[in-house]
Protein 1
Amino acid sequence: MSSNESTKLLWTAVGAAIAGAGVAVAVLKYSPARYSAPKDEEPSFPPLHQKRTSFIYENNASSSNSVIFPHNHEERMRRQITARAAVEEDNFMPRDSVTVRVPATSANMGPGYDTIGMAVDLWSEVTVERADTFEITAEGEGATEMPKDETNYMVIGCKAAFEAANKPLPILKYHVFSRVPFARGLGSSSAAIVAGIIAGLILAGHRLPCWGSEALLQIAAGIEGHPDNVAPVIYGGIQVGIHNGTRWVTERVPCPAGLQLVMFIPDFIGKTSDARSVLQPTISREDAAYNISRVAFLVHALCVGNLDNLKWGVEDRLHQPQRGGKLYKYLYPMIEAAENAGAACAYLSGAGPTVMAITAGASGDIFAQREKERSDLAVAKAMRQAAKEFGVQGQVVVTNVSNEGARVVKVVPPFSTGGITYRDNI
Ligand SMILES: Nc1ncnc2c1ncn2[C@@H]1O[C@H](COP(=O)(O)OP(=O)(O)O)[C@@H](O)[C@H]1O
Ligand SMILES: N[C@@H](CCOP(=O)(O)O)C(=O)O
């Protein structure tokens, strides 16, 4: 290399270093990290109904083009929310009518009492509309049994939504087409609560903060008292929820593909409140350790897709032995029969009386699989036989886990406008 070339290289390097330092200073000075909330403090945003195109970048030093550090998830979310909110601004006006679909859920999954729950591919559809007189009509599961007055959870959910919106509850009429078995341990109450809240929010034209506060979850779990049903109704999949001392927090647990759910649903009703009252108020350290180990095993088995470990993972000493002993004598014999017939595991769904067996199919829809690849039929037969031996009448329903939670399927006036069409043209 000539001395000329090396001098040129030296100056290029010096120039690059100065430019780099300049960028670094600019980045540090204007980095969005400077505007993030102090540690341990929730970032406070203006009310969500306010025009938001300005609130994130009120301080002009930070523009939407400024650098986001890889770890700065919060800033990235704020920008995404801002962009989306600008598009959706028009959609937050009060509505006349809304229809929401909500899934059944299977809580506890054995040892995860009041903590773990799974969305089940069985859906109810709730329509709430403004009316001159209050009315509740229902068809399908529990149509005659569910309350038709203000104690109905759809109404309680709707009321909570209007309270959150700080608006008086208008006169509304409710219609539910229910496919979630009523008071059978498949989360009919949580489905009604979540449907009511979502419908109420949309009718009121109010939206709740999601990221960082999950306000919908707070309201729903506040009404239900535990998050194991409402979290999967809202978010779908398998959810593990806690209360962190300040608020409810839920996380999705990965769900292995191709699971089938084989449910024995007795013909009789089992109210959750009754099934909670048979539980002992305290448990031994040994039983606590037992349940901790099983929950850990369950979550691990789901995460790595090790279905062989599920049968250990669903074992429990917190509620199943008491409920099985006092209310559902068929429970353990049915679990054994299902597992012997090829189920990966079986447990009491929620507070019962339904027993849930999980079987592993090949990939694709079960109706497109050869019988050899499916164990749901053998498991269903074994569960029915066990029920017969105990004189319990009921039906077996086979379905899947739903990775999706509650969704709005119709709104009047619609969200879709000439310019933007939302899915299903809602
Ligand atoms: N819209 C509704 N759908 C189902 N149950 C409701 C509804 N509104 C109120 N309930 C009450 O909730 C109870 C059913 O909930 P629960 O006992 O927890 O069973 P599940 O396992 O189905 O959630 C019943 O006593 C019923 O009166
Ligand atoms: N953790 C609760 C779950 C109740 O579920 P449900 O579907 O029976 O309402 C309990 O075990 O009590």
Protein 2
Amino acid sequence: MQKTELWYRFASCLCTAPEIGISLDISRMRFDDRFFEQMEPAMQKAFAAMADLEKGAIANPDEQRMVGHYWLRNPALAPSNDLRNEIEKTISQVEEFAKKIHSGTITPPGGNLFKNVLVVGIGGSALGPQFVADALASPNDKMRSYFLDNTDPDGMDRVFAELGNQLKQTLVIVISKSGSTKETRNGMLETQAAYERAGLDFSRHAVAVTGEGSELDRLAGSQGWLERFPMWDWVGGRTSVTSAVGLLPAALQGIDIRALLEGAKVCDESTRRPVTMQNQAALMALMWHYATNGRGEKDMVMLPYKDRLLLFSRYLQQLIMESLGKELDLDGKQASQGLTVYGNKGSTDQHAYVQQLREGVANFFVTFIEVLQDRESSSMQVEKGITSGDFLFGFLQGTRTALYEKGRESMTLTVERIDSRTIGALIALFERCVGLYASLININAYHQPGVEAGKKAAGVVIALQLEVVDLLERRRQLLTADEIAAMLGRPEEAETLFTILRHLAANQDRGVEAIRGTKPTEWQFRIRAAAQP
Ligand SMILES: O=P(O)(O)OC[C@H]1O[C@](O)(CO)[C@@H](O)[C@@H]1O
């Protein structure tokens, strides 16, 4: 298409939503004129399913649960007064708690103010809060945010070292909807131990966000933690950022959570309208369908041209891939669905993988995010009449054009600026898009059976570790993985046993010694002499 033709396509395809300050350009997607007409019946079905979901239907049939994240920013929509009150009460609880922490009504033992927030959580209990914290951080923040989002001991040590002797002024928020996620439990135990080593009373520094009656809830209650905030079964982890999960860390950091909720609410209103061509979430969902044939045949590369949005693609990875990546469809038929998401930020990525995007395998489409406001203050000129922000803009436009010339498709979301309202709106936009797209492809977006399988398998490995160490302690001789497997009556587990023992032997404090062989079958293991009684 020639430039003038493209200009007209751009002008006719641009979907603006001034109420949320977002516009969506789909002109660089090469759908044909009949595409929307063909998809309209399916889109209307998706709107109807979404309307039912918002009214409280069991939209997650596997778990027999309602799906209520849209009520979190508009509690009046909740299907009962009890739920509405719960949501409103929790938002007030978050605000009041943050106020007490900031004003020093609640202080750490020994006085002084809490200066830092350490969030311990994983998946939906970390990615949203991390994204919001990073996107909206400012030098005037009331508290500084840190995260433990893994069970990596070295990763935890790095955070503890960074906090150093500030632990005494650090408030810990342990977030887990289920209250039994092992990574989070481990992070909490290691944090508790760090406080004990520093002679501090962890319970006077800790709060929990979790489901009522969960393991974490009971622990926090029995140890008298500072406060507990609820998580509900009708909010999914990956759509929980507008619940206490995201609001509490944000409020403590000093972020305007009312503006964030307002941005999400207004975006919900805009994307609730069942008018496809005026609905950005519906248009994006249709573009995903068009680009991937509704089967995830292409990946989505997220390219926000703004450092503050660096973590957006990580956040979206869970939101999109945990929601859509399913083996079976809603009718129980084999579907192997999904949409792969990756990306960091432009123009940085231009100097990394954009080479392949332009010239290599054409297995993707791009979603650019353009932020119109360069910075809060005015800019210097880096060349006559040109600022750094002009270059950032130029690189975005240049990459979009260069990709299009090579037949690579893209969409562009343009926002005015990055503030709480915009972040709330962007979150809501993608949440809605995922929900609509899931309907288009007949997928339950609100369960995650595959993840449960991985968790169970890890449990098996941990149990096997206890068995093998027990055996080595009893046998006190050099043994190969095959010999151990045979002795345990589990010959099929030789490989797992080998990897368990290799890991233990690499960590001096675990008391296992390895005599290396050329091949894994030749390695021998025993309890270290020093560790023998
Ligand atoms: O909040 P929880 O229960 O600790 O779960 C953390 C994450 O684990 C998962 O269940 C599986 O990864 C996610 O859906 C969830 O966000």
